[in-house]
């Protein structure tokens, strides 16, 4: 199972791109928007469950003991990046739906495939993996605060408490709780360990199916979202260029080792697009604009990761411990 899992993880980029292309082709040949719209939430719930299962929830305390790295990681993701996003957001159109979609995805650091890319980019992936529970909990707590600060009253009008809380509970909290229970089961019973091992192969296929379903649902309505998508692409490219250097600058300020600094750079550059997708879909009138904006960021990011794994390892060795 581990060999299959490693193979899937190292080939994530082509798998995800092929899923997007397949979803677009399927939508053009046999459009079934309503069918795929109904599929998105269950697929997301399962994807998040198997994704959270890979997050070492028991390592939350261990991550906190590496206080310098954890402090740098949190400062980069929850102070420096929100400031960067707030500045760049001034370039976005006044349409609150577009602004909300961009902010949802760029204010939330990735907790899953960033670890694989960090490993490929000669960063301290194990330390980053141990910090993922902290990143997940803090981003969910701080996201409404950031939206209110940057969007003001527009956030209150779009992000209604009822649907948002419902989506957060059923598509994030419950999968997270079940993932924690399976981790406990796996730690105590051999059958649980085998089940966990089998489920550990599924995050990449589950993510690929979510991308397929979202694209298949959005493409028939893309005409309504095309202007928004084209407008946010340069914004995402600017973020992709600036974010890793922002993370690296924070790492230097905290005098991290080179491998730790690269981990912070990967974290600031890689966002939690599919984890926030259910929250975006809870917004009234979300389709097709919000999912189109979020999936567009995913595609820009996947292309960027190909550059990151070649360029971030070159970030200096001069940062002292």
Automatic annotation (TrEMBL):
Record's bilayer topology term: Multi-pass membrane protein
A Gene Ontology term for the protein's cellular component: plasma membrane
Protein name, UniProt field: Arsenic resistance protein
Top-rank taxon: Bacteria
InterPro entries hit by this protein: Arsenical-R_Acr3 (IPR004706), BilAc:Na_symport/Acr3 (IPR002657), Na+/solute_symporter_sf (IPR038770)
Primary localization: membrane
GO molecular function term, any single one: antimonite transmembrane transporter activity
Similarity annotation: Belongs to the arsenical resistance-3 (ACR3) (TC 2.A.59) family.
UniProt subcellular location: Cell membrane
Transmembrane spans: 15-36, 42-60, 72-91, 97-115, 127-147, 167-186, 198-222, 228-251
Gene source species: Sphingorhabdus lacus
Keyword hit for Membrane: yes
Keywords attached to this entry: Cell membrane, Membrane, Transmembrane, Transmembrane helix, Transport
């Amino acid at each position: 199972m581990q060999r299959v899992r490693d193979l899937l993880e190292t080939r994530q980029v082509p798998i995800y791109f092929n899923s997007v292309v397949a979803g677009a082709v399927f939508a053009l040949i046999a459009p079934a928007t309503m069918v795929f719209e109904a599929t998105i939430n269950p697929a997301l719930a399962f994807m998040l469950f198997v994704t959270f299962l890979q997050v070492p929830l028991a390592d939350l305390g261990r991550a906190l003991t590496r206080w310098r790295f954890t402090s740098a990681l949190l400062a980069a993701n929850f102070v420096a990046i929100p400031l960067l996003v707030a500045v760049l957001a001034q370039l976005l159109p006044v349409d609150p739906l577009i602004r909300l979609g961009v902010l949802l995805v760029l204010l939330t650091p990735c907790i899953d495939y960033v670890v694989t890319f960090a490993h490929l980019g000669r960063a301290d992936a194990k330390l980053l993996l141990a910090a993922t529970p902290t990143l997940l909990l803090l981003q969910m707590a701080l996201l409404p605060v950031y939206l209110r600060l940057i969007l003001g009253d527009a956030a209150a009008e779009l992000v209604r408490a009822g649907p948002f809380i419902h989506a957060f509970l059923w598509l994030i909290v419950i999968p997270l709780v079940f993932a924690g229970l399976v981790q406990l089961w796996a730690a105590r019973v051999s059958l649980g360990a085998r089940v966990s091992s089998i489920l550990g192969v599924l995050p990449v296929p589950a993510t690929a199916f979510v991308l397929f379903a979202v694209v298949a649902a959005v493409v028939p309505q893309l005409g309504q979202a095309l202007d928004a998508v084209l407008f946010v692409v340069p914004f995402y490219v600017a973020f992709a260029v600036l974010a890793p250097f922002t993370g690296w600058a924070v790492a230097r300020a905290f005098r991290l080792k080179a491998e730790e600094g690269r981990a912070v750079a990967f974290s600031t550059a890689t966002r939690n697009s599919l984890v926030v997708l259910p929250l975006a879909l809870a917004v009234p009138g979300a389709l097709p604009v919000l999912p189109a904006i979020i999936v567009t960021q995913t595609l820009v990011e996947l292309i960027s990761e190909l550059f990151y794994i070649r360029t971030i390892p070159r970030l200096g060795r001069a940062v002292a411990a």
